[in-house]
Amino acid sequence: MPRIGTIRPTRPADIEISDLGKRYGRAGSGIFAMDGVDLSVPAGEFVCVVGASGCGKSTLLRILAGFEPATKGTVTVAGEAVSKPDPERGVVFQDYGLFPWLSVSENIAYGPRQARLPRDVVRERTSRFLEAVGLTRFAAKFPHELSGGMQQRVAIARVLANDPSVMLMDEPFGALDALTRSSLQAELSRIHRETGTTVVFVTHSIEEAVFLADRVVVMAGGASHGVPGHIREIVPIDLGTDRDVTSPEFNELKRHISALVHQGVEAAA
Amino acid sequence: MTARTDAPSTTDTPTGTSAARSSASSTESSAPSTTSAPATTSATAERPASGSAAPVPTGKPTAAPAARRLRLPDRSTWATLLLALPVPIVGLLLWNLGVKQAWTLPFGIQMGFLPTPVEVAQRILDLAGAGSIDDAFSGTLLDHLGASTVRVLSGFGLAALLAIPLGVIMGRFSLAFKMLDPTVNLTRPIPVTAWAPLTLLIIGYGDGSAIFLVFLAAFFPILLNTISGVRQVPVRLVEAASMLGTRSGQVLYKVILPASMRSIVGGLRIALGLSWVILVVGETVGISTGLGAMITQARDMSKTDLIVAGMVIIGLAGFVADRVLVGLVKLVTRSRPTLS
Fold it and tell me: CA distances (Å), B229 to each of A215, B264, B273, B278, B338, in order?
């Protein structure tokens, strides 16, 4: 697998979230979908957010991305308050969100072009990240000609081409089959090591979280539980690189997180 | 987690191919189409009619465009022709027989009053200046066709020029939509044919009226299709564009327009078809050149062969106009997926 290369993306950024809350609907009506969320993510860390449906993990990510405003609290990335989407905070969606009328390489070149980088820089970055996700041979193809896994690789490359200081990923591998999923997890883990970008990764899969994360944030609650979504616990994962999903330590962590996620869910279900 | 990603695995291979796309375009060009509702073909044309397209190119992605450029008629083209030809041939034979034997059909259609297909063909040749009938209409085809085409293009072009921007605004901004949609929906049901008498009084006989009627007919299909196309643009694409650094002023051009292109083109095709329909109405009164005027004059002189010849020519003109529009869209969008 080709390396991404010597040019390390710009300084990864730290994320500070304090007393974050989100309420849908009019002020004064309805309960908070998410409330009282405090989280610090040091620059370069890989954080996974898990939790049952409706716990607010996607809302948290969308606020971080700047797609939705918070009702209360603050979010800062690299010391700056988040107010709108920015190429410094690249987002990878579950449904890819590729531009179907642009070829693979044009999708990857989109961000750098928007940033009005010189042509040769755009070309260099495009080919570097095409290579990084193993899609050089498919540069001229269009998204509909690729499998889901390949489309998601394009989506990742397209975000990386912007040199983001933070990558936000919303269940990016949720729609993929198990084989493709595990190969993309390994690839993402390698890409994270090489770029050092801060990653916030929302997932349903506890195994995926334990495999990828430096820390796993377990969220609980949600409007349907009558309690706003909140952070139940933050579990550090000290398994180093090259994790073995069959090892006892790995499974002990899985069990622990699984218990945290499910605690209280049965009562409400 | 080492070397399993440099080649895509079996679960990770490309699916659709450009071979499928090229066969889709060949079926599209031979698909039957009418002038009044050409947009119905746009949905069906996306799928290849048969699975006999060229084998999927594997290694080289460059192989497909080369094959597209050559495009010799392959087996599926012949099959399409073979399947399409019998019906019109039998139809022409029955028509000929019916005229000769003066059949009376349901609705009281008296075929004895009709010209034969051969007489119509002779008339068309004569109109084109290569015939032997030699009357006031001989060799006037280009005058009539030219005048009609100019009217259709003026009215249609004007409608597109106004309706597309307005549709984008109404589709994108709910304030504009709420302000304008009720008026649009109240105005739209008035048939363009009902506008015709008023138009003649307030604009007067001549090009102006005909162009205005064509404009009215073309305006609403373009507007409505543009609105619905713009409203259906996936939010995800707008989000993706914004997190990739698209300035808000550019979202329209970078995302909204390309993502609603298909719908807009669908509206343009319906509108262009309707334009030819309304043209005949617009040319009925007070105009001496144009295909509609020619048909009206032919009716006054009971020249049924000329009437049918005019009908055939209008049909062909509408068909060609639709093909040209589709071809132009393909050219401008360079045949990119979801754009053309």
Answer: 43, 7, 20, 25, 12
Chain A residues close to B246, C-beta within 8 Å: 114
Question: How many alpha carbons fall within 13 Å on the CB side of residue B293?
Answer: 21
Instruction: Classify residue B331 as exposed, middle or buried by CB count within 10 Å of its CB (0-12, 13-18, 19+).
Output: exposed
pLDDT in tens, A113-134: 999 999 999 999 999 999 989 9
Buried b (16+ CB within 10 A) or exposed e, B209-243: bbbbbbbbbbbbbbbbbbbbbbeebeeebbbbbbb
A73: closest CA among A130, A115, A15, A128? A15
Full-model pTM: 0.79
Structure tokens, B245: 């650094």
Contact B5/A at CB under 8 A: yes
Residue of A nearest to B261 (CA): A101
Helix, coil or strand: residue A199: strand
- Judging contacts by C-beta atoms under 8 Å, the chain B residues touching residue A159 are 243-244
Buried b (16+ CB within 10 A) or exposed e, A86-95: bbbbbbbbbb
What whole-number distance in Å separates Cα of residue A82 and Cα of residue B2? 37
Alpha carbon distance B66, B62 (integer Å): 7
- Cross-strand bridge partners of residue A34: A22, A229
**Topology annotation, domain B150-288:** MetI-like fold (1.10.3720)
The Cα B43–Cα B307 span in angstroms is: 33
Separation of alpha carbons B176 and B180, rounded Å: 6
Is residue A257 a contact partner of residue A48, using CB atoms and an 8 Å limit? no
Residue B178's Cβ-count burial label (10 Å; 0-12, 13-18, 19+) is exposed
CA dist., res. B210 & res. B149, Å (int): 11
A21 in Cβ contact with A71 (< 8 Å)? yes
Which of B340, B306, B258, B21 shows the shortest CA–CA distance to B136? Answer: B306
Please answer whether residues A126 and A109 qualify as being in contact, where contact means their C-beta atoms are separated by less than 8 angstroms: yes
Quick one: three-class SS letters along B80-133? HHHHHCHHHHHHHHHHHHHHHCCCEEHHHEEHHHCCCHHHHHHHHHHHCCCCCC
Query: CA quadruple A122, A145, B229, B37: dihedral positive or negative?
Result: positive
B243 with A134: Cβ contact below 8 A: no
The pLDDT score that the predictor gives to residue B193 is: 87
Distance (Å, rounded) from C-alpha A267 to C-alpha A263?
Answer: 8
Q: Which residue has tokens 């609705």?
A: B107
Domain boundary assignment for chain B = 150-288
Residue A138: its chain B contacts at CB < 8 A?
Answer: 14, 61
Do the strands A227-236 and A72-77 form a parallel or antiparallel pair, or are they unpaired?
unpaired
Is the confidence at residue A3, as pLDDT, over 80? no
| CA pseudo-torsion sign B153, B156, B162, B166 | negative
Give pLDDT tens digits for B113-123.
999 999 999 99
Q: How many CB atoms lie within 10 A of CB A8?
A: 13
Would you say A268 and A221 are in contact if contact means Cβ atoms under 8 Å apart? no
Count of C-beta atoms within a 10 Å radius of residue B6: 11
